[in-house]
Write a structure and sequence with these properties.
The complex is a heterodimer of chains A (297) and B (239). By secondary structure, chain A is mainly α. Chain A contains 14 helices and no strands. The radius of gyration of chain A is 26 Å and the shape is flat. In chain B, α4 crosses α5. Chain B is globular, with a radius of gyration of 18 Å. The chains are: A mainly alpha (297), B alpha/beta (239). The interface between A and B is medium-sized, with 22 and 29 residues.
Amino acid sequence: MSDASLITPDARPGRPRKFRAATAEAAPARLALIGIALTGVAILILAPLATVFAEALADGWAAALASLTKPDARSAIQLTLLITAIALPLNAAFGVAAAWLITKFDFRGKAFLITLIDLPFSVSPVVAGLCIVLLFGANSLIGGWLVAHGLPIVFAIPGIVLATVFVTFPFVARELIPVMIEQGRTEEEVALTLGASGWRVFWTVTLPNIRWALLYGALLCTARAMGEFGAVAVVSGKIRGKTATMPITIEMLYNEYLSVAAFSMAAALTALALITLTLKTALELRHADQLAAIRRH
Amino acid sequence: MDIHIDEIAKEFGKATALKPVTLSIPSGALVALLGPSGSGKTTLLRILGGLEFPTSGRVLFDGQDATGMSVQDRRAGFVFQSYALFRHMTVFDNIAYGLNARPRAKRPEKAEIARRVTKLLELIQLPDIGARYPSQLSGGQRQRVALARALAIEPRMLLLDEPFGALDAKVRKELRQGLRDIHDETGLTTVFVTHDQDEAMELADVVVVMSMGSIEQIGRPQDIRDRPATPFVRDFIAA
């Protein structure tokens, strides 16, 4: 190697030397990493997904559809959609209120409140369900009174709603809190100095700024609300055609060796989740410029 | 509108942000609150704007006690250090925000709002940016839009927190003159906070030097430069 080549490592004309970005890896390492990631995705996500649909369609489309249109199956689908439709707005409202409180105000016990919001993440859903049974069951003080007045909670829809709301409580708040902390309070303060009422500030400044985080939170909440098993299993009593949601029906059908029916229901539940995801992606594509404007600022 | 600050003190928990300070600002003055960070100047500005409330003392506007007056009722045009433009709204909607927020009875017609916004855009010499979003503006443009938005509510006073803090030196010089011109044109009582003594000396009629929550000296720029009242002022001006 001559001295000149030390200064100009590759001086041949017409062939600019390629430099690797500091954060990039060499080709073999890149291939290995991509390979590991793809294998992981294939084994952990794609294979189960494919299995669900393959098992559901083992006896053909007609059999799968027939199993889904049976009265009990239809009742389960309707119940799951109903529970989600109730739990989602409740948790969106709770989540926005909690995040607003935590990020826009200073008060004693704030750290405790944040821990409390996270509680459903760390408590087993079964334990949560048991707590609801103990608190609102027919043998408890509150539950006894409610049953006497024709409003049973446990083994009825209100109990399932309570369990679902509890389990999905953190999703919206957890999405919103970091976004709202990052945005700070100044935009709200400006709006106040411009004469806007607190309510108007919320609708015209706070909410538009958090709508994407709110949407993500709501989608996660929806997915989880539809899929929740443990807590609902405890409080619902698993009454066929009455309090059996889709996940519970899947378990019951599977235990009865009704494989096609179980997997058809599972496929339907999966399809609902996929619809949710598609919706999110579509919204992102449609509002890409707005999203970018918010993030760049 | 003249402003009188009477023995205003502010504590945040155990920390003292302002010791009792007294200050009179005549109507139409351009006043700089000058001091290092932690001197209490921003706290004083926020108390004037109604974003903080004093622990003790009174604020008088035109002789009327305004200590407990709500931020909305004060009609203080407030420009924040970070400008805090509403990022999801166009420049036009940003400037029109205060007018649209008025109760229906006091809200101008749509055409009137548009006319006023156009006029303000001309005042800040950016007539063609109404349809843009804040993320598409330069720092200097954002600052001017924030100023126009504050002026749109026909404020009784103009309060600016480090209005040029985030700008490069050249733009800063231009905008200083811009603020001086707007002040002279509107005749609004204007208070701005800065840690830059050049800025305070060049722009303000009256400079209030603050340190550790107290006022060290109040005077015309020339007086403060020639006759610093305390060792702190002398050191701060010399720096």
